[in-house]
Amino acid sequence: MEKFTSFLKASWEEITQHVTWPPFNELQANTTLVLVGSLIFAFVVGVMDFVFENALKLFYQSF
Predict the structure, then answer these.
(1) For 56, phi and psi rounded to 5 degrees?
(2) What would the pLDDT profile of 14-48 be if each residue is shown by its tens digit?
(3) 62 DSSP assignment
(4) Given Cys at both, which of 14, 18, 22, 47 links 26, Cβ 3.0 to 4.6 Å?
(5) What sign does the dihedral 15-17-30-27 (CA atoms) show?
């Protein structure tokens, strides 16, 4: 148990004193960037799925 409490104390010290936290406006900008990128990626994957699904339907219907 002593090792665990020592770990928690060292972790808390690391987080509060040694980590450089970005400003709030930078966090907002990065969050927006990740959200937009994720939506674009999801759209591209959805379009690819739609195209492949319809291409395979046409292919199988030709037999």
Answers:
(1) -70, -35
(2) 999 999 999 999 999 999 999 999 999 999 999 99
(3) T
(4) 22
(5) positive
